[in-house]
């Protein structure tokens, strides 16, 4: 049964042929409708001034004039209720971490299966975030957009002072070797901290650490 009102989606990407295909794909998903498109962040800002605000923005990272990082940060500052899903060819941790810190709520590769995109859109609306296999289901289920629930989740997992320090540094663009130098520890010791936190927080990657830190307030996005 079709919902009374469809989820409004905006698509921001500088490749017109790719956008055309994405518009058709999203519009074929039950309950979703692309209301407008933009070539880059600057055009997105103009659209927000003249068009209806979307519920979700599908956002590329590499764009001319105003890239995905700047655009996500602008949306977080001006339209915090709009959910940003990064849609990019970038799959390295540094880019994803930077987008998370800019305010993105999820990341999906452009060559992903269409079903994954549908799953991501559904997760954004239901849970407020989507990170695929980068984060375990246990952590996803424990965190939500509700600050009280996030605080409860943080209270259940106690981190010592050094673990908290490492977690905050892991949420930057520093390499693990640079983190080791800052903490005056051997790289092998840092590897131990990383693996211990992966196990304690039930995450699978550095992206999972970042998500946990942001959701529980260990890292505050300004």
Automatic annotation (TrEMBL):
Residues 152-217 form the HTH luxR-type domain. Pfam families: GerE, Response_reg. The keyword Acyltransferase does not apply. It comes from the Bacteria. Keywords: DNA-binding, Phosphoprotein. The keyword RNA-binding does not apply. InterPro entries: CheY-like_superfamily, NreC/VraR/RcsB-like_REC, Sig_transdc_resp-reg_C-effctor, Sig_transdc_resp-reg_receiver, Tscrpt_reg_LuxR_C, WalR-like. SMART domains: HTH_LUXR, REC. GO terms for biological process: phosphorelay signal transduction system; regulation of DNA-templated transcription. Residues 8-125 form the Response regulatory domain. GO terms for molecular function: DNA binding. The modification 4-aspartylphosphate is found at residue 60. This is DNA-binding response regulator. The lineage of its organism: Bacteria, Pseudomonadati, Bacteroidota, Cytophagia, Cytophagales.
């Amino acid at each position: 049964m079709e919902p009374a009102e469809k989820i409004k989606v905006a698509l921001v990407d500088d490749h017109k042929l790719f956008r055309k295909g994405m518009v058709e794909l999203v519009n074929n998903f039950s309950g979703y409708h692309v209301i407008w498109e933009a070539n880059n962040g600057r055009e997105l800002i103009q659209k927000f001034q003249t068009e209806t605000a979307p519920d979700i923005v599908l956002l590329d990272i590499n764009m001319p004039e105003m890239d995905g990082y700047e655009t996500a940060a602008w949306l977080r500052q001006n339209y915090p209720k709009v959910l940003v899903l990064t849609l990019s060819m970038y799959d390295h941790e540094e880019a994803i971490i930077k987008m998370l810190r800019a305010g993105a709520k999820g990341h999906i590769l452009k060559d992903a299966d269409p079903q994954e995109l549908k799953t991501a859109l559904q997760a954004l609306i239901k849970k407020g975030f989507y990170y695929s296999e980068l984060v375990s289901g246990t952590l996803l289920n424990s965190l939500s957009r509700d600050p009280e629930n996030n605080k409860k989740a943080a209270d259940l997992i106690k981190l010592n002072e050094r673990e908290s320090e490492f977690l905050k540094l892991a949420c930057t663009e520093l390499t693990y070797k640079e983190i080791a130098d800052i903490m005056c520890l051997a790289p092998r010791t840092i590897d131990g901290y990383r693996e211990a936190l992966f196990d304690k927080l039930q995450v699978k990657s550095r992206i999972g650490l970042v998500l946990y830190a942001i959701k529980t307030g260990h890292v505050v996005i300004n």
